[in-house]
């Protein structure tokens, strides 16, 4: 058995290398795969000559140039290396960039524009790394940079255009937001500026109007200068003519005339310095007014109560003025006699006084039908009374409307009425019949006034007693029970002492 085994081993030495069973099938499969791989490599044009990474420069030159025989120049076996550029991967290329951490370059996604890479990154690339790549897949760095810069420029141009298109509405919206944010502050500041400007301009307008009146009627050889010896608010000749009590109130004083102790003129002008009042006057018009108050002497004025104004104002005065309400009434125009204009109404104590004060000269100058339309535009009212309330009972009151500063001469005839009526009232005397009526009326009114005063005094005393009684009741309510008992006992003792008769003791002799 031993001989047979040894001879079998020696007789067939190849049987040691021949596979048997599954090993043979495995070897057959490996050989089949290897043959398929060689067939595939032989079919690829880029893999005509294999190239492997890691070869030295000398070996690369040998593969690139080839052997030369004598003077015969042999063409290189492969094309020269392509220019260095960054391109996208293609199915024909089987190699990628070297596995270096510093030079890893990824191709951008297809939906984004490629960004230019710096040329320094290509210094790490091996020129022989990509061979056999078609030239249409590789672009030069200059063209790549130019295309990328053009794309960036187009993007920037489109961006700037869109920004320019968007800047307009955005800036307008921001401006509107700022305006709406500070609208209240802007309105307040604007109002203050306009109010300040109007204050100074309005103040100046009022001063100019008052000075224009003074230059016309209170300077040398004027109406008041001829009728009064002293003009102005001082006692000297150089004293100012006007006294400004407010931004729209001016005073004028004159004295030194018979029948009167003095004259006070008050100019109440529009509140031009106040912006709100100025706007209100645009809606509700008002006039610049001047009022003359003449304080008559006690022995220079008889029983005279007279008023004249436009019809509506005359009725209002008759209801509100105490002296007109008690003594005077509306006077109807007489028949067959020249009378005042239809617009005017007279309120007087008697018709005799009204007829004597409305003379023909006055009708022709101011209060007639024709004269009033021309010269009576600024007339408001006249009120003469010896029963005025206040310290000065005998007083003449004239009220006129002031024209513009340039038309101050239009009220010359109205101002002339002041000295005319001072002399007329100072010399006027009632008839005996009219005086008896006025005296009877005055005595009756005096008795009524006295009764009213007595009733007022009685009411005041009763009111005072009621208040004292109320205070005592409140004080008693605050007292304690012991204090009330003591007070009642004291009051009882006082009553008993008062009820007991007084007895006198005498000594018997």
From TrEMBL:
Broad class of where this protein is predominantly found: membrane
Extent of Polar residues compositional bias: 103-121
Biased composition (Basic and acidic residues): 158-172, 460-494
A biological process from GO: endoplasmic reticulum calcium ion homeostasis
GO cellular component: endoplasmic reticulum; membrane
Gene Ontology molecular functions: calcium ion binding
Keyword annotations: Membrane, Transmembrane, Transmembrane helix
Basic residues bias spans: 495-509
Low complexity compositional bias, start-end: 147-157
Record's subcellular location: Membrane
Region annotation (Disordered) ranges: 71-121, 142-172, 459-509
Superkingdom to which the source organism belongs: Eukaryota
Protein's membrane topology: Single-pass membrane protein
TM regions (residue ranges): none
PANTHER family cross-referenced by the UniProt entry: ADIPOCYTE-SPECIFIC PROTEIN 4-RELATED (PTHR12883), PAT COMPLEX SUBUNIT CCDC47 (PTHR12883:SF0)
Annotated protein name in UniProt: Coiled-coil domain-containing protein 47
